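Researcher: Please translate sequence to structure tokens.
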Amino acid sequence: MLNLPALAGSGSVLQISDRRHDYRQSETDTIPASVTELGNDVFGECINLSAIHVAEANRNYSSEDGILYDKGKTILLFCPKAKIKLEEVRITVPDTVHNIAEYAFDHGSGWQKHVTLVCYEGSPAQKYAEEHEMKFEASRAVTR
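Model: Translation complete:
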């Protein structure tokens, strides 16, 4: 497990820069309450990462089932690579999600075809799935 506060010594971690977080052997990660900003594709090189956890007191980020979201769960930011592991996986996207970060599921050639996004018909998640050659399963229709 990667412990971000331990990496910072006695100080608080406030920002994690772009692709600087490539601890390849880490299987889980906890983002402390002090982190206010994550860089682009910050977990992109973490090939063994299967879950991201966020301290409950963090004001900007949250997680559910090991997947990273903004605090309000309106943006799905990142799905860990090892969560997929080239086998079929179903990921239920909360109805609150209005956007999925462009590289949230960008794990290299062919990874996306092993993921089925479960979400409501006509949702941003369905659109993302279609645009990225992923499978989609309707959980129910929701009028917005």
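Researcher: Any highlights?
Model: The first helix runs from residue 4 to 7.
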